[in-house]
Amino acid sequence: PDPPARVRVLSPFDPLLRDRSRAERLFDFFYRIEVFVPEPKREYGYYVFPLLEGDRLIGRIDMKADRKRGSLDVRRLWLERGVKPSSGRMEKLMAELDRIARFAGVEQVKLLDGWNAALS
Question: What pTM does this model have?
Answer without folding.
Answer: 0.91
